[in-house]
Design brief:
One of its GO terms (biological process) is tetrahydrobiopterin biosynthetic process. By secondary structure, the chain is α+β, with helices and mostly antiparallel strands. The protein has helices spanning 30-37, 73-88, 93-96, 107-119, and strands at residues 11-21, 46-56, 91-92, 127-133, 139-142. It has a single domain (9-142), classed as Tetrahydropterin Synthase, Chain A, CATH 3.30.479. The longest helix is centred in the middle third of the chain and has 16 residues, at 73-88.
Length: 150
């Protein structure tokens, strides 16, 4: 393969944001919520230092032969600031982020929110996955899937 041939690469950038939330579904009774979510259903909420790693994929894109990059990291940093840090950092997800007024603020749904927010800013087809670390043990990976068969 010559140096000018298309080479595919994935680029990632990490950010960390802090937020609080309460796991509570309006579709369930208080007793059912407590049983399902346990201490995470605390009426006063609880907090996390979320570490999110967004992987930018090549999909139909390769390493640009002129710049040598998949994407300029300065641009990616700005997109992540707008899509993640501004709406989520140091916020009460349930009270400060309109998306979560009707959606339970699980890490799965945080990953979907981040995916949707980044998709609006990034070039089409470049986002590969969103990986959100709620704790050292709990990680959610979302790749834009719309539905699953159960």
């Amino acid at each position: 393969m010559s140096p000018r041939s298309a080479r595919l690469a994935r680029l990632s950038r990490s950010v960390t944001f802090s937020a609080c939330h309460r796991l509570h579904s309006k579709s369930l009774s208080d007793e059912e919520n407590l049983k399902l979510f346990g201490k995470c259903n605390n009426p006063n909420g609880h907090g996390h230092n979320y570490k999110g790693r967004k992987l930018i994929s090549i999909l139909a894109h390769g390493i640009d032969p002129v710049s040598g990059m998949v994407m300029n990291l300065t641009d990616l940093k700005e997109y992540m600031q707008e899509a993640i840090m501004e709406p989520l950092d140091h916020k009460n997800l349930d009270k400060d982020v309109p998306y979560f007024s009707e959606v339970v603020s699980t890490t799965e749904n945080v990953a979907v929110f981040i995916w949707d927010s980044l998709q609006k800013l990034l070039p089409q087809g470049i986002l590969y996955k969103v990986e959100v670390h709620e704790t050292e043990q709990n990680v959610v990976v979302y790749k834009g899937e719309e539905s699953v068969v159960r």
